[in-house]
Design goal:
By secondary structure, this protein is an alpha/beta fold. A seven-stranded mixed beta sheet has the order 4-3-2-1-5-6-7, sandwiched between helices. It has a six-stranded mixed beta sheet with strand order 9-11-10-8-12-13. The radius of gyration is 20 Å and the shape is globular. The chain has two domains: 169 residues, Rossmann fold, CATH 3.40.50.720; 152 residues, Dihydrodipicolinate Reductase, domain 2. It contains 13 helices and 13 strands. The structure holds NADP nicotinamide-adenine-dinucleotide phosphate.
Length: 335
């Protein structure tokens, strides 16, 4: 395997691979060997397999994997992807929803070099989903992106697995932990949006620039990915009608509660409708999750309604999806 991007998720994945090496061998017959790791400053490469404990120590102390004894400063991700013997490339670089870069080029190059790809990066998926999906088929490689929606919640895996015999009529999701935290606190404390946003920023739950979250754009990205991967439509981010939570007032939350509802930022994907906005959800409905939790409800022809809920971010939680994708590819390839 090669890991491109060694920030929160790359390091989280490395930790989990160390902790679970015996478990993966015993339960899946899988012995993952990481032969290259790249960040923005350079790479560490060892075709015999990098010592991940040492690599983590170096990356944490020196801020880059290039400081490892097998490190190469200035070595780019593209050079690594094209030169490595890895079978699987994890693309875990930052999301850019305008260009999809640098992830988009990394993923294309990896596929063209006949490597399977696993990514958590929403950028390439909202910019070029269909292109990447067909490139993977043409190149004969597996392409997985479970971690891009729902963090540790297996939204895509559930739908493509045991629910595959159902027609999905609608997907409704609380898909952004930051906005869900803000709305939950506003509801509990009857506090205005700006005060709670500030508190969330102090706690590290909201980013310094929270625009993508609070304007609903992060949720819209996830709705675009779900629509493309599960509803078979060819959707772009611009096809989603988006409203954020900036204008939600504490009075509205209070009135909703008195009428038996909570206000949630809900993304909706149907074949003919993609939208994100604050919606009334009945108190007690499984989508009415609190705090930073995520939840997704599938409306299905056979099983009727299924809701899945859990943690939508965090390196350990999200590594569950990355590892699940790796094991899935291992199984598909007959491992
Ligand atoms: N964190 C989560 O819980 C979570 C959950 C689901 C999805 N995601 C998505 O997963 C991706 C990774 O998230 P993260 O939290 O791990 O981000 P992060 O902590 O910012 O890490 C990004 C990593 O990518 C590296 N990088 C940036 N540009 C690069 C380039 N051109 N070539 C090689 N490496 C490059 C960075 O290197 P330097 O450190 O040298 O700058 C850093 O190691 C993002 O797209 C994010 O949206 C994150």
């Amino acid at each position: 395997m090669a890991i491109v991007g060694f920030g929160n998720l790359g390091r989280g994945l490395a930790r989990v691979l160390i902790e679970k090496s015996e478990f993966l061998r015993r339960t899946q017959g899988l012995i993952p060997r990481v032969v290259a790791v790249v960040d923005e400053h350079g790479a560490a490469v060892d075709e015999d397999g990098l010592d991940l404990r040492r690599l983590l120590r170096v990356a944490e102390r020196k801020g880059t994997v290039a400081a490892h004894p097998k490190g190469k400063r200035g070595k780019s991700a593209l050079e690594i992807i094209e030169g490595t013997e890895a079978d699987v490339v994890f693309e875990l670089t930052p999301t850019n929803i305008k260009t999809g870069e640098p992830g988009l080029t990394h993923i294309k190059k990896a596929m063209q070099a006949e490597k399977h790809v696993i990514t958590s990066n929403k950028g390439p998926l909202v910019v070029a989903f269909k292109e990447l999906d067909s490139l993977a088929r043409r190149c004969g490689v597996e392409f997985r992106y479970s971690a891009s929606v729902g963090g540790g919640v297996p939204v895509i895996g559930l739908a493509k697995g045991l629910l595959a015999g159902n027609e999905i009529r609608a997907i409704r999701g609380v898909l952004n932990g930051t906005t869900n935290y803000i709305l939950t606190r506003m509801s509990k404390e009857n506090a205005p949006f700006d005060v709670v946003l500030h508190e969330a920023q102090e706690l590290g739950i909201a980013e310094k620039d929270p625009t993508l979250d609070i304007e609903g754009i992060d949720t819209a990205c996830k709705i675009t990915i779900l629509a493309n991967s599960l509803l078979g439509v060819n959707a772009r981010l611009r096809d989603v009608r988006v409203a954020g939570i900036r204008n939600v007032r504490p009075e509205a939350i209070r009135l909703a509660r008195e009428a038996g509802y909570v206000i949630k930022l809900v993304g909706v994907a149907k074949r003919d409708l993609l939208e994100v906005g604050p919606k009334l959800v009945p108190l007690g409905h499984p989508l009415a999750v609190g705090g930073t939790l995520n939840a997704v409800t599938f409306e299905l022809d056979l099983a009727r309604e299924i809701t899945i809920t859990g943690f939508g971010a965090g390196p350990q939680e999200t590594s569950s999806s990355l590892l699940g994708d790796l094991i899935d590819i291992h199984r598909v390839l007959g491992g």
